[in-house]
Write a structure and sequence with these properties.
Elements lengths: L26 H13 L1 H12 L30 E2 L28 E10 L4 E2 L4 E5 L19 H7 L21 E5 L5 E7 L11 E11 L5 E14 L1 H8 L19 H6 L7 E2 L1 E3 L9 E9 L5 E2 L4
Parallel strand pairs: 1-11, 2-11, 8-9
Antiparallel strand pairs: 2-3, 2-6, 4-5, 4-7, 7-8, 8-12, 10-11
Length: about 325
Amino acid sequence: MHLSTLLVAALLSPALAHPGPHPPIQKGEVLRRSGLSARCSDHVARFNEKRWKRNLNKRSSNTTYQITSEAPYYNTIQNDTCVLTPEVTEGPYIWPQSQTLRQDMSEGQPGVPLWLDVGVLDMATCEPLEGVLVDFWHCNATGSYSSFTGLSPNTPFETLLKQLNVSSYEMGTTDLHTDDTTFLRGMWPTDKNGMMEMKTTFPGFYVERAIHIHVQVHTDWVTRGNGTIAKGKTVSTGQLYFDEALEKKIMALEPYVSHTEINRTTNAADSVYSQDTEGGYNPVISVVPIDGEDVTKGMVGYITIGVDTTAVEDEVAV
């Protein structure tokens, strides 16, 4: 049996990544990214076709169920991709001291297994980008971020700041971390084909935000002995989302269903998501059930990120 669901994900991120004011993306920036994306559309199609021919059997050693399908393919491969830029802020729950070099960031967190299969293209050349560091972080099944488990996922961010007596908050500068946990944070470099894979757990939700995963791409990076990033350049920052029907199915399972203190924000109601879809981009991840039948037993999400290597910003070592 062939699977017909496929993802060539398009990532477009807002000027702010979390609750609070979200300055709109400038029209000129949307048009610039769209032009770069269109120029590389044929390369994106060939790139993704090659990726989809890889068989899923390599993951069978990490599962307790049998792969029953052939490698998935898409009859009409989507050619759209999106360019990410460093102007996008990463939200208050990034914490570089906990972002660790590894390919499995699940740390035993309960929930549905999710493998992120990522391809990165250099939009300046339309070719796969080797050796860039792809960095992910997201909340757990009940809405908490590691390193910030002392902050309630059910309390609006502005209210949290008041409770913490923080009168002046600056994104990316103000330190709100509460602990040294590292779950659901990880990063790994792309190989010679511009590809990498990360194992994680399907995220839950927290107040005022749709279910999402943060992603950054770094070039010229250096890590410390403990696997955290020491320095590098950020060339893209974005968020990925999931289909509403998929979210409903997963949120009906434990431990997700036990998160009853707040209602889940849908994609349609999320102001950040509405900015992410400007310009016709599609930031929603399509998934393949790892056993070919049931996504609740685990899934693979395929993502293609277009990186504008002409726009970079230096990172400060932490």
